[in-house]
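HUMAN: Mind making up another protein with tokenized structure?

ASSISTANT:
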Amino acid sequence: MNFDEAAARRLVLVRAIESADEAGTVLSEAERTNAEQLTLQKRNVPRGERPDPEWYLPARAGEILAAIGKRDAGLARLAERGPGWERAAFVLPLLALIAGFGSEAIGDPHKLDLVSLPLLGFALWNVAVYLLLVASVLAQRPAGQRAERVLQWLGEPQSVRGQFRVLWWRVAGALEGARLQKVLHVSAAAWALGLVLWVAWLGISKEFRFGWQSTWLKERGVHWIVNVLSWPGETLFGLQGFSAADISRLKTGPAMVVVDGDAARWGLLYISFLVVVVIVPRALLAMAAAVRARRLARSLPLDLADPYFVRVMARVSPARVVVRVMAADAALREHLQCVVRQAAAPDKLVTPQGDELVFFSGEPEASEDADMAWVAVRNAGEVQAAVARLPDTLPVVVLYPPDGGLQAMVSGRSGACELLPLPACWPLDAPLRSTLARLVPSWKAAGAERLAQAWVQAHEALWRDGVQALDSVMAEAAGDSEKLEGWWPRGKAREEAMGLLLQRLRQRLDAAHTQLLRLHAVDGFLPGHRVEGGEAGWAALVNKGSAGAAGAVAGAAAGALAGAKIDLLTGGLTLGAAAAVGALLGGAGLFGAAHWGDWGGTVRFNEGQLASIAEGLVLQYLAVIHAGRVELPAAEIPAAWRSAAVAAVAADPEGFTRHMGESVARALRSIYPEMAGQAESSQFTIHGTP
């Protein structure tokens, strides 16, 4: 695409800044983003619409330079064409005119040599220039390319100004070369004009001497040179040249004979030669260079397919990233679908800029073109069978269960292929998420990065809402109480009060559990809420989960806490069958002794009971985030989960009542130590509280 010189200079300068300023000291990422948004807003570009690069790129460069100019006006002024060329176009020809006027006067100011060394040298130099111009045209090597090679030979500085000079000559080398040629041609013509003026002045003001002398040249050689120099005047203006006899008698010495009019004739031949061979051709070449420079200044080509411009446009161009999802069996397919549901609803992730992340589970032969494929397998033997159905150039991410022992990479493919473990829960999705920007085409990379950030933000919301649901249960349980009436409340009154407490707790847990399931898109994982018969009741509840053992475990955590049948024994508030459930949850006796006063009294959960509730909530959260991804044996909670829940609550017995997220984060880090070094692309981190 072609741009005028002003726009091209802005674009090249901003490119030099963004290329050389990797640390962001000249232009920060926030300033770059703000400039891009201002550019789009000023043109009222709808959100999610790709702007036209013809106006967007120069306008963006202008906004960036306006921001930089507030701190470094000198750097921003590089975008403006300085007065150097105009000054050079005036000063250099003037100096050449003066030099030409005085070149013949350096020797004898009263004598004009028939064999003038300044004239001969000047003529040879111009002839050499003409030959070089012809060779340059035949070789198709513009002056800009030669200048760029000189800059590269001098070394390409890493500074912004150094990179700008090199980049500018790459873009506008032909333009600057034409300007340089114009100045040089005008200067050469001015030099010749100075010689003409000197001869004319010498002929008008004085009677100059005329002749020749040479140690090496004889009459024959001088005659040949004079004939060459006289040819333009003889041919075009009909002037009379000099014969061999004339040359012989004009040799300086005692025998020299000067005929009246010889000096004037040679002066006219001298002037004719300069006009025809130097002044006119150089003037025409200068005019041609000026016309070419004016034309190029209106239309400088920039390759928008260059990776730099592709990245710039990708920052504001919506990208559609299509991921084909494939799995070797139904369980692995459910695992990938769970990843998709927790990243995008229902099967598409959209950013405010209009980027789309689409998960496509159709057959490889379907019409939709994919940018990459996620293939879930259990062993190396399934890899080739799955990948063979995909185009050879399509990037593939092979996903396998962490305990599957799959280590072999796929060979013989031209497309990228990566091997990753299947993430057991959404906090472990970061490695899979990072493949988006790494494997898509370069022009989609910026959009893929925005989609990855949107994925992170979706998980941030998932974490925030889930922890809020747990916090609500803990806060309400810690503040809930029942007043006992009378001077000396009997056991039945205490039993009824505790029953009311447990009933409200059950309702809160039921609501929180339902919300967690909805947030994590694990529909069908909500079992019943009553446990009868101790361990047998627990096993029955786990076994009857219709959507998977992990979902049953999640329901069991809520059901055991809130839906357990309470057997109140005389002399204290304890549980019969439910006591075994409390032990399984790692609690310190969920329904241990309650607090009440000596006068009337109040029943509320004590510290041990609150700790038991917290442990159950942590287990409940772990079960929900693993639902659909981790296959658990029936009636079995992983020992690592149970110990992690107990340790997380015990680490801060009082703090978990203020923020359950602390306990959940500690439990996750305990179960998955690799999360401690897991980098996220935003401020969100599961290492602590968001």
Remarks:
- The longest strand covers residues 320-327.
- The first helix runs from residue 5 to 20.
- Confidence is low (pLDDT under 50) at residues 525-599, 679-684.
- Residues 185 and 282 are 5 Å apart (CA to CA).
